[in-house]
Specification:
The chain has 303 residues and is an alpha/beta fold. It has helices spanning 2-16, 20-42, 85-95, 111-121, 143-152, 211-215, 219-222; strands at residues 48-56, 67-71, 99-102, 130-132, 157-158, 162-168, 171-177, 204-207, 227-230, 258-262, 265-269, 287-295.
């Protein structure tokens, strides 16, 4: 034991005598592998539930406390993504949601992986239904096939350029979604998305894969959306300690992750579940999202 202590002390003294540049280089060479190991072995698999509360004067009192689970970017069987589906199912069930929404990018570009992911998602249940839109990865082998499997295998109603009314105790809220839009110059017109038939008093929830697409709505129509649920970004996937994202897939950096308020609209962007290009996450952990809706109460009516 004495010899070990002496050897360790001598090694420490020798290290301190090294030029500062060698000490810095040694620490740097240790730091990089440690970050990569953390990003691969821990954070990429550390799925968690992130919860948000949204309060709106437009929400009917019947929907006060209405809970939505939002799952996006699973990337099942993508070779650079881990299989977190069992954990997704467990966490979603624990939330006991009223409705479950899916934001696209479900699986790898093979029919087998698409069938498998929707067979697993079919196991989730919610009293007011399951709804989803397509992401850019769902256009292979074809969007028609992805929507067919979504509907027939997953029991999920497609909202790609469609809308539905959710009704409860005589009240209702509007839920609609957009398809993934490849052409950034393609104009988003309100009639296509049914916004013109809605009144300012309607509570409107939008499901869109890419948060940039929400910002392409005309300003006069964005005001009609109370909540926009988005994915696609992976939260940056690999960030500089959550401060800066060197490789971003969105133009609006403020919509990279989390909850942002634009006027009366609450825009919530999830980090998603899976990964692409490389199986790493750094300060952008995987997540499913729970949104609880609250009706704003009239303080004068309730002094």
């Amino acid at each position: 034991m004495t010899r070990l202590r002496t050897a360790f002390r001598n090694l420490t003294i020798a290290a301190l005598k090294l030029p500062r540049r060698w000490i810095f280089l040694s620490a740097f060479l240790f730091f990089i592998p440690a970050c990569l190991a953390y990003a691969y072995f821990y954070e990429s698999r550390a799925l968690r539930t992130v919860r948000y509360d949204v309060t709106s004067e437009n929400l009917p009192p019947a929907f006060d406390g209405f809970k939505i689970v939002f799952i996006t970017d699973v990337h099942h069987q993508c070779w650079m993504s881990f299989n977190l589906l069992p954990e997704v199912l467990r966490l979603a069930r624990e939330e006991k949601p009223d409705a479950i929404l899916f934001g696209g990018d479900y699986a790898a570009w093979t029919e087998g992986s698409i069938q498998e992911v929707f067979a697993e998602l079919k196991k989730l249940e919610a009293p007011y239904g399951k709804f989803g839109v397509l992401g850019n990865h769902d256009y292979y082998p074809s969007p028609e096939y992805s929507e067919q499997m979504m509907r027939e295998t997953g029991g999920i109603q497609s909202l790609s350029d469609r809308g539905v009314w959710l009704e409860k105790d005589g009240a209702r809220i509007r839920l609609f979604g957009t398809e993934y839009l490849w052409d950034e110059d393609y104009p988003l017109q309100a009639p296509r998305y049914e916004l013109e038939r809605l009144t300012p008093e309607d509570f409107v929830l939008l499901l869109v894969h890419n948060p940039d697409d929400f910002m392409r709505f005309p300003r006069r129509d964005r005001w009609k959306v109370d909540v926009a649920l988005c994915g696609h970004t992976h939260g940056g996937q690999v960030t500089f300690f959550g401060i800066y994202t060197p490789i971003s897939v969105v133009n609006h950096q403020d919509l990279q992750s989390g909850q942002v308020h634009w006027g009366n609209t609450s825009i919530i962007t999830s980090n998603g579940v899976g990964t692409v290009k490389f199986p790493l996450r750094f300060f952008a952990p995987p997540q499913i999202v729970t949104v609880t809706l609250h009706a704003a109460h009239d303080e004068q009516a309730n002094p």
